[in-house]
Amino acid sequence: MKHLAEYRDADTARRLAAEIGRIATRPWAIMEVCGGQTHSIIRNGVDQLLPPEVELIHGPGCPVCVTPLETIDRGLAVAAKPGVIFCSFGDMLRVPGSRENLFTVKGRGADVRVVYSPLDAVKLARENPGREVVFLAIGFETTAPANAMAVKLAKQQGLTNFSMLVSHVLVPPAIEAIMRSPGNRVNAFLAAGHVCSVMGTWQYPPLAERFRVPIVVTGFEPLDLLEGIRRTVAQLQEGRHSVENAYARVVSERGNEPAQTVIAEVFEPVDRAWRGIGVIPGSGWRLSEAYRDFDAEVRFAVGDVTAEESPLCRSGEVLRGTLKPNQCPAFGKECTPRTPLGATMVSSEGACAAYFHFGRFAGP
Fold first, then answer.
1. Rg (CA), the chain
2. With contact defined as beta carbons under 8 Å apart, do 195 and 32 qualify?
3. Which end of the chain has the least Cβ crowding within 10 Å, N or C?
4. List of domains in the chain
5. Are 251 and 201 in contact (CB under 8 A)?
6. What is the pTM of this model?
7. Sign (positive/negative) of CA torsion 8, 9, 14, 17?
8. pLDDT one-digit tens code per residue, 261-302
9. What angle do CA 144, 355, 71 make, to 5 degrees?
10. Beta carbons within 8 Å of 329's beta carbon, 6+ residues apart
11. Is-contact 341 315, C-beta < 8 A?
């Protein structure tokens, strides 16, 4: 707790907020890309410490939230098949598909299990040679190394009953899509520290230069976020647009190169659909040709499953940063954590869930 307390000191937070207020003389809109950062901002009231000139926009950095509806429906179709052990992290079980979720499929008798690592699923495949074991592999670059290692290990062990339903998404193409979107008003980005701990910061300078936006890598504690915002506002006020690393205790320029090597071996780039946003070119990974036999979408022939979003759910606008959660007419009414219309209300990193759990019901 000592080291955490260093990044949660109230007096230091107030000093940083005051410094941001002193620097900011014009309106600036800064997007935090990561849903974990969103939850920390709302839980700790970081946005309420900021001067009125600085607005935080919540970005699409919740991997559960941006997993496309058709991927959820494909997973539900696979989980319902006889002889399948369907494995997932716990935060996916209540994410709504078109008509149901993994909990309801499990309630009808499907063998759906919560695991804490993709290696748990590999172990289940080894222990159950007569069953098909499928792991739902979602996430940003952060979770990709472990998923890649799981597939590589399954191949090394000759496991023919293990596969993955893959829906990985990548941050840099999402930033580009946001900057190119009509009506975009983002002036700068707080980049996700855990993503950069894997991939480094080397991918971001071309984006900062092309779109003339500051990109500051930061962590998740209140002081991390306030320092990242301070650096961002300083760049904006001075007319600069560079990449700064405000999370140097975790992030380096090159990142985790062994992790990047195994990712490059097991996965290959692909155009990926983002829930509520649409297809972003080159924004995802799928299993490479050498590991295509482990692709559950191919193995179970569910690639043609399509789906439509609820007309009441405006999570796409929330994920694009054009709507605050409490501006959605369904927020806290038709849509609650017990009766979610979209993943942003049930994910532990969803912006709607953050607003609901921390009492942000009043519109801005």
1. 21
2. no
3. N
4. 1-304 (3.40.50.11740), 315-356 (no CATH)
5. yes
6. 0.91
7. negative
8. 999 999 999 999 888 788 999 999 999 999 999 999 999 999
9. 35
10. 312, 314
11. yes
